[in-house]
Amino acid sequence: MGAMLKAVWKYRGFVLGLVRRELESRYTRSLLGSIWLVLQPLVTIFIYTVVFSQVMRARLPGVQDSWAYGIYLCAGVLPWGYFSEIITRSQTMFLERADLLKKVLFPRSLLPVSLLLSATVNTAILLGIFLVFLALVGRWPGVVLVGVPVLLVLQAAFALGLGVLLGTINIFFRDIGQFVGIVIQFWFWFTPIVYPLSIVPQWLQTHMAWNPMFPLISGYQAIFVQYAWPAWGSLAWVAVLSVSLLVLGWQVFRRLSGEMVDEL
C-alpha cells in the first residue's frame, strides 16, 4: 500500500489527467457539457425529496416531519450510488484502458485510484447540493456532519478493496462482471435504503447485521434524519473488513498484474 501511495504522488499529474478525462467523457458531444455534473444530481435530489415527501406524501413510520422520508432516501441512495459506481466501474476499468496499459509505462495501480477519485468528485457534488437543500428547508444536521467524511473514507476503502479484487479477477474470468451486476441489485434491496428497518421482520434484521453496507448506510441516515452520531461500535468490524479487503485486493492485483496485459 505504501508503494501505491508513493506512485500516486509521483504520478499525480497523470492521475488528475485520468480523472479529468473520465469526467469529461461522460458528457462528450453534449450541448450542456459539464453543466450535467450539477444538473443531474439536482434533479435526483429534487425527485427524492420534493416528489416523494411533498407530492406523494410518503412518510417514515413514527416521524411527523414531512421532509423526513425524502431526506432518508437521499441519505441512503447517495452513498449507495458512490459504492455502486466504484464496484461497477471496477469490473471494466482495466479492460477499458487496455490500449493505455499496453502502450504507456505507468504503475497500473493508478487506474483504480483515478476511478476512486472520479467517483468521489461526483459524490462530493451530490452531497454539496444535498447540504444546500437541507439548509434551505431548515434541516441542517449540525455538528454531526463531521461524521460524514469518516463514513465516506471507510466506505471508499471497502469499495476500492472489493472493486480491485473483483476487477482483477474479471480480467481472467469475464463472468465475474455479469455476476457482480446481479449481486449489486440484490444487495441494494437487502440494505434499508428505500424502506425503514422497522418494517423488516426481526429474523431478517438479524441477517442484515452481516451486511457491511447496513451500518454504513444507517450511519448516514442517523446523521441526516436523526441528527445523531453513527453507531461507531457497529462499524468496527466494517473497518477491519475494509482494511483486509484493501490488503487482499492489492496483493492479488500485484501478483497478477504481470499476466494482466496478456489477457487484455
Labels describing this entry:
globular; 0% strand; mainly alpha; single chain
Quickly describe the structure.
By secondary structure, the protein is mostly helical.
Written description of the protein model:
By secondary structure, the chain is mostly helical. It has one domain. It has 12 helices and no strands. It has helices spanning 2-10, 12-25, 36-55, 68-90, 93-96, 98-103, 110-136, 147-172, 175-189, 202-208, 213-225, 236-263. The longest helix has 28 residues, at 236-263. The two termini are 25 Å apart. The model has no long low-confidence stretch (mean pLDDT 82).
List the helices and strands and how they pair.
Layout: H1 2-10, H2 12-25, H3 36-55, H4 68-90, H5 93-96, H6 98-103, H7 110-136, H8 147-172, H9 175-189, H10 202-208, H11 213-225, H12 236-263
Helix pairs in contact: 2-7, 3-4, 3-7, 4-7, 4-8, 4-9, 4-11, 7-8, 8-9, 8-11, 8-12
- The counted number of beta strands is 0
Quote the distance from N terminus to C terminus: 25 Å
| Beta strand % | under 5%
Oligomer: single chain
Number of helical elements: 12
